[in-house]
Amino acid sequence: MSDIQLPLIDPLLEDNPTIKVPADLKKRRQRLRDFERIAPQPPARGFTGKLRPYQRHGVDWLCFLRDFKFGGLLADDMGLGKTVQVLAFLQLLKERGPRRGRPASLLVAPRSLIVNWQREAEKFTPALRVLPYVGQFRLKDAAAFRGYDVVLTTYGTLLRDIDRLRKYRFHYAILDESQAIKNPVAKSAKAARQLEAEHRLALTG
What we know:
- The chain is of the alpha/beta class and 205 residues long.
- It has eight helices and six strands; from the N terminus they run αααβαβαββααβαβ.
- It has a six-stranded parallel β-sheet with strand order 1-6-5-2-4-3.
- The chain starts with 9 loop residues before the first helix and ends with a strand.
C-alpha cells in the first residue's frame, strides 16, 4: 500500500478496533500524522551550479515526495529551472545511496528538448551517467540500462519501444512537458502508464 492511501484505512480501523494492524503499517501511519513541514535537504556535492531559493525548495519537495512514496507534478513557468531542479535531485539520490543494484531512472521528453537535457546534465551534474535512448542505433537490450543513472528518451521512442521498456523496472519515471499525455486515451498516455517504476514524476509549464 502506498503512503498516499494510508488515510483511507483510518475509518475502517475506527469502525473495527479488533483489526490487527502490522507494525510497519502503524509506523507509516504515525509518520504521516507527525508530519509538520518539508525538511530542507543538504545540497548535492556533485551539483556544479547554484540553486536559487525557490529551486532549493523544489528539490526539498521532490525529496519529500520520494520519502513518502508519493508521485508528483512539478509545474512552473518556462525558464524557471525545472530541468535544473530535477538534475540536482537525481544527483542527490545518486550520492545518498549505493549505486550497485539501483536501477536507472527514465526521463521522457519531447525530441526538441533532448539536447537541452544532455547539455544541462553535462554542465550541472557531470557525474550522472546519462544514456540517450534515441535514434536508429539506440541500444535494443534494456539490461544495458543498469550501467546508467538516467535513460533519456522521447515520447515517440517510448511509444515505439514500450514493449521493451515496460520490462525494465526504473527507479524513477519522469515525464517532461507531461501535457503530452493529458489525453488519457492517447497512445502515448497508455504507453506511459505501462512503465514500471518505483516513483513517478511529471513536469509541465
